[in-house]
Amino acid sequence: MSIRAVLTDIEGTTSSIDFVHQTLFPYAKAHLRSFLRAQARRPEVAVHVHAVAAAEGRQLTLEDAADVLERWIAEDRKATPLKALQGMVWAQGYAAGELKGHVYPDAPEYLRRWHGQGLRLYVYSSGSVEAQQLIFGHTDYGDLTPLFTGYFDTLMGGKREVASYRNILAQIGLPADEVLFLSDIGEELDAAREAGLATVQLLRDAKAKPFPQHPAARDFSEVQL
Q1: Rounded to two decimals, what is the model's pTM?
Q2: In the CATH hierarchy, which fold is given to the domain comprising 5-16+102-222?
Q3: Where in the chain is the domain with CATH 3.40.50.1000?
Q4: Over the chain, what is the mean pLDDT?
Q5: What is the pLDDT of residues 29-65, one digit of tens each?
Q6: Topology at the third CATH level for domain 20-95
Q7: What is the 3-class SS of the chain, one letter each residue?
């Protein structure tokens, strides 16, 4: 097996789960309603507000839409309009210096090393592409976005669906066995392996559920390419 590309998850893999759930989600919830009130007329915002109404199957006022989005945040709903709008809110937070993207200390070191070795690096996360770029673009280790060749979100499909990884492979243009997928979630790794990808499970958190059918690593230094 010769790995030519690494596809990495974010939450629990490159970045702390706590950062997402204790910093990003509360920030979005605190600012989303005021963001919609100020920005709802922008076409790139309105299209996602309409998608929220379509998902609910009913007409929604702007305040109704904000109620639904806040409920989806509490449920950790993997809905594309929510992820897109959260990304826009977070963009304002990063620009204002109120947010800083978290990555584990080993992640920048090994991402740079792999990039320097000629590997193509990709991200696949349930967060929107914009949100992914914001995390990696505003870290304590500098802007990491130049290291990545591409980013994938739920427009590819759900992360526990085999078809999603086949869609990503079609975009990457490499044979499945030349792509390594990194994630902390066993069901995601199962789907990726069924699509033919190589897999490694990151077990950074003591609460993580090991899936013995996948090679395991406590951090990126233990990932065997």
Answers
A1: 0.86
A2: Rossmann fold (3.40.50)
A3: 5-16+102-222
A4: 95
A5: 999 999 999 999 999 999 999 999 999 999 999 999 9
A6: 1.10.720
A7: CCCCEEEECCECCCECHHHHHHHHHHHHHHHHHHHHHHHCCCHHHHHHHHHHHHHHCCCCCHHHHHHHHHHHHHHCCCCHHHHHHHHHHHHHHHHCCCCCECCCCHHHHHHHHHHHCCCEEEEECCCCHHHHHHHHHCECCECCHHHEEEEECHHHCCCCCHHHHHHHHHHHCCCHHHEEEEECCHHHHHHHHHCCCEEEEECCCCCCCCCCCCCEECCHHHCCC
